[in-house]
Amino acid sequence: MNIRPEHQALAQQLQDFRHDLHRHPELSNQEFETTAKIRARLEKEQIRIVDLPLKTGLVAEVGGLQDGPLVVVRSDIDALPIDEESGVDYSSLNQGVMHACGHDFHSSAAIGAAILLKQREKELKGRVRILFQAAEETGLGAPDLIATGALDEAKVIFGIHNDPTLPVGVVGGKDGALTAGVDRFEINITAKGCHAAKPHEGNDPIIIISQVIAAVQTLISRNVSSDNNAVVSITQVHSGNTWNVIPESAYMEGTVRTFNQPARDLIERRFRQIIAGLSEAFDAQIEFIWHAGPPSVVNTPEWVSFALDLAGNVGFEARRVEASPIGEDFAFYQLKLPGTFMMIGSGGPYALHHPKFRVDDRALFPTAHYLAELARHALEKLTR
Ligand code: NI
User: Fold this and answer.
1) Which of 53, 86, 281, 296 shows its CA 20 to 30 Å from the CA of 65?
2) Segments in 135-186 forming alpha helices (H)
3) 12 and 146 co-located in one domain
């Protein structure tokens, strides 16, 4: 993708900025240095920082010289507890922490968008708020930001995620559900331990947990209609520590992924019924803990079309993409206001959260430009 001569310097600065963030990644809710760097860069451009009670992350604002609506562009800033193996020369200097989801890319693109919007501030038909959201990886950064009231007047929100499965130069969009609702469950079984030779004297939690594992397989296959996609995965099971003792407890953990609220509610309800039934059947205490994460990202079709059309107009190839069972706390914003979350081709080949994950630098400036144009044209559309 070509970068116009007048934008070459900014493109280089954004790349340098991203590489610096990449070298110094910070985990969720600990993004103090990252926040300070973003703030300093914005202040250098005389971009307003909205005064909000946030521990980390920040919100910038451009526009307002003309009265008009408020449009929001969201980026995220946190990294992951992963040892980097990407081999890039700007690899992480914080051992065990890595920008393996490309949030350094998102926040650098958002800074670029803020700068580009600032250059055309007089033309903006309203205000644009640019979110640098903390703690996306916890799934709970967005609710904290929403609680500050920063989006109360907003009419539409745009978000992006880099997508290593798409080549650089492609923007992907999808009407309706794009990402999955992500819930986590834990199960603690308290039974009765005994000698392995005398199982009748105990209440074997390994037998019970194996029944739970089997019953959980029906949550989707015998409850959720074939029109719906959903996933239940059990990801760890622990019990016992030797060969001749029946233990007294067992533990398991896993995740549920769904693409709509009725399916999500149904699975949770049936899960609880199965656990209650097995607890009764085996005369054991089974504790069920449900950690509700973000719901599904559900895009507003009108804004998906708008964002795909605009992608085509600014030099991207616009594509319709499939839903993906990953989680994204952008979903919380969409419970409040319309908007769309777009996928930006970042070249691969390694998946998000992979230790060798990398983002192609060539995607950065075009993404900044795209975000700025999304906001500017959304204001035009809303005031037309
Ligand atoms: Ni991410």
Assistant:
1) 53
2) 141-147
3) yes
What's the CA-to-centroid distance between 73 and ligand 1, angstroms? Answer: 15
Are the C-beta atoms of 34 and 56 separated by less than 8 Å? yes
CATH of the domain at 241: 3.30.70.360
Ligand 1 center from residue 113 Cα (angstroms): 19
pLDDT in tens, 259-307: 999 999 999 999 999 999 999 999 999 999 999 999 999 999 999 999 9
The token duo for 99 is 């920008």
* CATH code of 24's domain: 3.40.630.10
Claim to verify: residue 334 and residue 245 sit in the same structural domain: no
Residue 2 has pLDDT above 90, yes or no: no
Is pLDDT at 205 greater than 90 in this prediction? yes
Please give the residue range of the domain that contains residue 263: 181-292
Which structure tokens are listed for 306?
């708008």
pTM of the model: 0.91
CA proximity to 141, closest of 81, 71, 55: 55
Domain final residue pick, 254, 271, 292: 292
Q: Can you tell me which residue has the tokens 């204001």?
A: 379
Give me the number of domains the chain comprises.
Answer: 2
Residues bordering ligand 1, an ion, CB closer than 5 Å: 101
**What separation in Å is there between the alpha carbon of 347 and the centre of ligand 1?**
15
> Is the same domain home to 267 and 314?
no
In percent, the amount of the chain with pLDDT more than 90 equals 96
Whether residue 247 sits in one domain with residue 114: no
Å from CA of 77 to ligand 1 middle: 9
How many angstroms separate the alpha carbon of residue 104 from the centre of ligand 1?
10
* Ligand 1 centroid, distance to 69 Cα (angstroms): 28
Q: Compute, in angstroms, the gap from residue 79 CA to the centroid of ligand 1.
A: 9
Beta bridge partners of 156: 71
Report d(CA 384, CA 378) in Å as an integer: 10
Out of 292, 320, 354, pick the residue that ends a domain: 292
3-state SS class at 267: helix
